[in-house]
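FORM 12-B: Structure-to-Sequence Request
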């Protein structure tokens, strides 16, 4: 959690939309909040008033996981919160299940098949979603994930077996993805209703995350790239074991630092806030401190990513949380390794450990 939250301005204080209801945060911009069955227990979704080819309606930003509760909430929104207008398109910021999970279902108009809207995503996110939905390359479970985490020090057989059994984790939460999509790209300007939004690509948290920025009205739909309470997860997973996502993420934050001080950020988790530059400074300091911790720990003795987890995360973690914690520990180790600060070697036990260069 962010101990410096008081430095941010929560413009709606503690007002939150109830499940299945909406709150207007700007003219033609409505906020939905859907439950999640994780420690991170909610996701914010957005409705933007729109018009395409003379037809009035709405653009949906992100969709939630596939669950009966969220479907029921969406059905209520469709029936009561759209002013009798259809959804014209669905924009998904990135491929993680809480964002992409119900996109196909929403595109098809829910249980009543009310409309047939197009999915809009970046190519990197759409492609990775299709890969993971097919059961290959999932970050959260399966045999490949178990081997990856075992190589980085997860030796508890019960945890590894739990990981192997989670091979259907992603397809369960994202049961279908539209077979066709419309690609969005960094810097592209999208006309959504009366507003022009710029696509701001971000990297490190996911392959090609798309935030949306309206300069005229100082609105930023930041997705998971800039969150007010928690630090965005940045992990190394089995599909890209030598990746350097933390460097990519820190580079991506620069895209938001030039935005006006009073821009209103609409994040995927937490509450709408002002103070994006302040929050980015906090995130940079957070990772600077974590990198120093990791470097110092490896100077004491060679450390695996699993050895680093209790240094970075001083709380009890379940298997789901452990995958992200170990992935994030490895992201910090990989950045130091690729910067030449650390070297890495596999021991006789097959575990990779890092030590000073």
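FORM 12-B RESPONSE
SEQUENCE OUT:
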């Amino acid at each position: 959690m962010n101990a410096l939250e008081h430095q941010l301005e929560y413009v709606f204080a503690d007002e939150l939309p109830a499940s299945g209801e909406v709150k207007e945060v700007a003219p033609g911009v409505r906020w939905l909040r859907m439950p999640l069955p994780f420690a991170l227990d909610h996701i914010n979704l957005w409705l933007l008033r729109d018009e395409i080819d003379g037809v009035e309606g709405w653009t949906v930003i992100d969709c939630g996981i596939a669950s009966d509760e969220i479907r029921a909430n969406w059905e209520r929104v469709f029936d009561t919160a759209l002013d009798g207008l259809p959804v014209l398109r669905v924009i998904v910021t990135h491929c993680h299940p809480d964002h992409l999970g119900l996109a196909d279902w929403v595109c098809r108009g829910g249980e009543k098949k009310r409309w047939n809207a197009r999915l809009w995503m970046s190519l990197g996110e759409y492609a990775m979603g299709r890969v993971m939905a097919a059961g290959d390359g999932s970050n959260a479970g399966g045999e490949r994930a178990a081997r990856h985490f075992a190589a980085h020090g997860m030796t508890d057989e019960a945890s590894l077996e739990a990981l192997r059994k989670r091979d259907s984790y992603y397809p369960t939460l994202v049961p279908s993805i539209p077979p066709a999509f419309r690609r969005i790209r960094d810097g592209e300007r999208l006309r959504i209703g009366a507003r022009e939004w710029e696509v701001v690509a971000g990297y490190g948290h996911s392959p090609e995350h798309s935030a949306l920025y309206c300069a005229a009205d100082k609105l930023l739909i930041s997705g998971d790239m800039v969150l007010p309470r928690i630090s965005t997860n940045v992990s190394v997973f089995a599909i890209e074991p030598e990746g350097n996502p933390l460097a990519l993420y820190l580079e991506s934050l620069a895209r938001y630092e030039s935005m006006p001080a009073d821009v209103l950020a609409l994040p995927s988790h937490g509450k709408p806030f002002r103070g994006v530059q302040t929050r980015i400074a906090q995130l940079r300091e957070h990772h600077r401190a974590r990198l120093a911790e990791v470097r110092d720990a490896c100077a004491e003795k060679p450390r695996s990513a699993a050895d680093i987890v209790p240094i970075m995360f001083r709380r009890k973690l379940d298997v789901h949380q452990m995958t992200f914690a170990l992935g994030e520990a490895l992201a910090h180790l990989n950045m130091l390794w690729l910067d030449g600060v650390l070297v890495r070697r596999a021991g006789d036990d097959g575990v990779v450990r890092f030590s000073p260069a």
